[in-house]
Design goal:
Layout lengths: L1 E4 L2 H5 L1 E3 L5 H12 L5 H14 L3 H5 L22 H9 L3 H21 L8 H11 L3 H18 L4 H29 L5 E4 L2 E4 L5 E4 L5 E6 L7 E2 L8 E5 L22 H10 L3 E2 H8 L3 H13 L3 E6 L2 E6 L1 H8 L9
Parallel strand pairs: 1-5, 2-6, 6-8
Antiparallel strand pairs: 1-4, 3-4, 7-8, 9-11, 10-11
Helix pairs in contact: 2-8, 5-8, 6-7, 10-11, 11-12
């Protein structure tokens, strides 16, 4: 079990990330790629992604094992600014930190070898591939960054608008909880594997661990590819981040997937409904904003959702509608490539 200990100051410093983190999604998706569970959400994604890979898994597997610890330096906070900013931070990892975290990884491999069924532990070849990194070799770090970039382009980037829309929907639900009841309500609204028992946030976790925030607050990072349990940094001195899974309603679709025809959106009423959703609203709020009946608001929201312009997430006894990046771009009259990254 994970126990995150809050003080009054920490509660005032709880923040919600304003976007997906490219490196967290990349690293956690690499776990999902080798995990057979969650076929309904990830099955087709796995099949499509594997066809685009070109040897990246061989380079990444030594530092991102299929279970257990992976080094904190792989997911610097700069990843929230995009893949290139995150990779620049990875390449700048100090040699001392690199050696310390890879030593922890090696110890984790040895523990895995002792407890895993025969043939399921870390291979000698995997450990050999990690050795140049442990030596602080700059070329090895550059090679790792290149593998992360290549993997991201194959397995994450094509699905980024879908990932972004799910995270924006989750943010809308958490933001509404924060407005309704402050940090207490926000923490209580998190997915079921997280339980707010003031002043401690408990979570299902593979090991027993206590994280004391000590006035630093906590950044909540929703993640599309996080599954089952949340993730935190191993190093307690790093700024506290809690990565938790969003609710999945459907499987990720590539950005160029045509989806249902947008011709169904023609009409002033539906355009009004799309604009009324704005930064998020319930069905009853949508009906009031758009000046339509509750049944009509629900129907319009359903059509917009099927067209890929709206995401709907259950929040308590109601549902919350938010715009996808495509829906927001349509209201703006078009989207730049940067807005979809």
């Amino acid at each position: 079990m994970l126990r995150v200990h809050f003080s009054g100051v920490d509660l005032s410093r709880v923040r919600l990330s304003d976007r997906p983190d490219a490196l967290w999604e990349t690293v956690l998706s690499f776990h999902r790629l080798r995990d057979r569970r969650g076929a309904k959400v990830f099955g087709e994604w796995r099949r499509e992604s594997r066809t685009r890979l070109n040897g990246e898994t061989r380079l990444l597997a030594p530092v991102i094992p299929s279970r257990g610890y992976f080094p904190d330096f792989l997911t610097p906070r700069e990843g929230v600014r995009g893949m290139e900013a995150g990779l620049e931070a990875v390449r700048a990892t100090a040699t001392e930190r690199l050696r310390a975290e890879l030593a922890l990884l090696a110890a984790s491999h040895r523990q895995s070898d002792r407890t895993a069924p025969q043939g399921c532990g870390a291979s000698t070849q995997q450990r050999r591939h990690a050795a140049p990194l442990a030596g602080g070799r700059g070329d090895a770090l550059a090679l790792l960054a290149g593998a992360l970039r290549g993997y991201h382009r194959a397995a994450v980037e094509p699905y980024w608008p879908h990932i972004q829309s799910r995270i924006e929907a989750d943010r809308a639900a958490r933001g509404r909880a924060l407005l309704d009841g402050g940090a207490d309500e926000l923490l209580a609204s998190l997915p079921p594997m997280l339980r707010w028992r003031p002043p401690v946030l408990e979570a299902d976790y593979p090991v027993d661990r206590d994280l004391y925030l000590r006035g630093r607050g906590l950044l909540l990072q929703p993640s599309f590819f996080c599954r089952g349990t949340p993730v935190v940094y191993r190093d307690p001195q790093l700024p506290p981040v809690l990565v938790y899974p969003v609710t999945h309603a459907d499987a990720p679709a590539p950005a160029d997937d045509p989806g249902p025809p947008l011709g169904r959106l023609v009409g002033q009423t539906r355009s009004t409904v799309l604009a009324a959703i704005g930064g998020g609203c319930t069905t009853s709020e949508l009906a009031r904003r758009a000046g339509v009946s509750l049944a009509s608001a629900s129907q319009h929201a359903c059509v917009l959702r099927e067209a890929g312009l709206v995401v709907t997430l259950r929040h308590g006894n109601s549902v919350l509608h938010t715009l996808t990046p495509l829906g927001a771009a349509l209201l703006r009259g078009g989207a730049t490539a940067e807005s979809l990254q």
